[in-house]
Amino acid sequence: MKLIAESGSTRTEWALVEDCHIVQRVFTEGLNPYFQTRREISRSVRLGLPELFFKKKLEQVYYYGAGCTTNEKKNILGASLVAQFKTPIQVESDLLAAARGLFQCEAGIACILGTGSNSCLYDGKIIIKNVRAGGYILGDEGSGAVLGKMFLSDALKGIAPKELVNDFYEKFRISANDVMESVYNRPFPNRFLSTISYFLADYLDSDYVYHMLTGNLRNFFVRNVCQYDYQNYPIRFVGSVAYSYADILRDVAEEFGVTLETIEETPMPGLIEFHALNIEEV
């Protein structure tokens, strides 16, 4: 039996897998070694997962996560998971999860649009090019966090429609001062910013919201997708924002001459298929 985990900054999906079949599937909070210590990660895993996950005899744990981009960060995650599962752990980035989940062993451009955003050119085995994501301050175009940041900036400066801003403050039960506190002084500001994208989804009939969303998605194509040889490879998307705004994402892609056939909410089904092939990982 294998345990496959895929974690963004907001949530982690865990799947106990026997051959190609999911024995049990659980969602817990997101993990990120850039924002959490080894001890905090261990505590989150132990308290978030059912006891069954720790009692099963596992051949291997495959963990893919946000922030797992260097050996140092991978080691933080790996040490935390080894302490909990007492079994071999393989830690890779959430970007490789997207590539393997979307393409398995085929070549293509894999894109993530969720709390954050990222992209890569994958040759069917490894990532051969990656336009640096930059995070929610310096990059993450097209993501939920950046969409939330754009709206809040407009709300605070009095640019966003007043009715929309009032609805936001009422539904979130916060004030402008609370917004500043959440962004600058509380943990995981990117998670807070990303939740606003779901609020905005109810206002797509507003020209303001529609143009802000399409502009954010165009920025992702211009600043990320177009940096690859994108006209000669299939392009596929994964992530909560890509999935929620799939129709609009397809329309924006068409502006760049791209037809999107695959937009998945999570890479897990493809990852299960990939690991069922028992490929010797690189």
TrEMBL record:
Q: Which intervals of the chain form a coiled coil?
A: none
Q: What is the recorded name of this protein?
A: N-acetylglucosamine kinase
Superkingdom field = Bacteria
Q: Which organism is it from?
A: Bacteroides graminisolvens DSM 19988 = JCM 15093
